[in-house]
Amino acid sequence: MKKLILLLILLLIVLIFFVGCEREVCIKDEDCVVSGCNKEICANRPLTSICVWKPEYECLKYTSCKCINFRCQWENTTQYYECLELNKGKKISNVS
Prior knowledge:
Blueprint: H1 2-19, E1 33-35, E2 41-43, E3 52-53, E4 65-68, E5 71-74, H2 78-87, E6 93-94
Antiparallel strand pairs: 1-2, 3-6, 4-5
């Protein structure tokens, strides 16, 4: 059992060092933050984006920014995907 725990700790350390350069790497949900001009980015640190509104951003209210498989990403929910389907093909606009 001790060997397994040590192996898991070593694996986690290796993961952090070798994949740590990616912006999405996380360990827990609290490591992830929502940022961007339209709050459309889910990452482990605040990032900026161009201020262009895309209709699918309206769907983000149906999901959460979470740590899933060591990556910060939007959680898949039925409501989120239904909203994305409804917003397909809508116009993109600039945000002032």
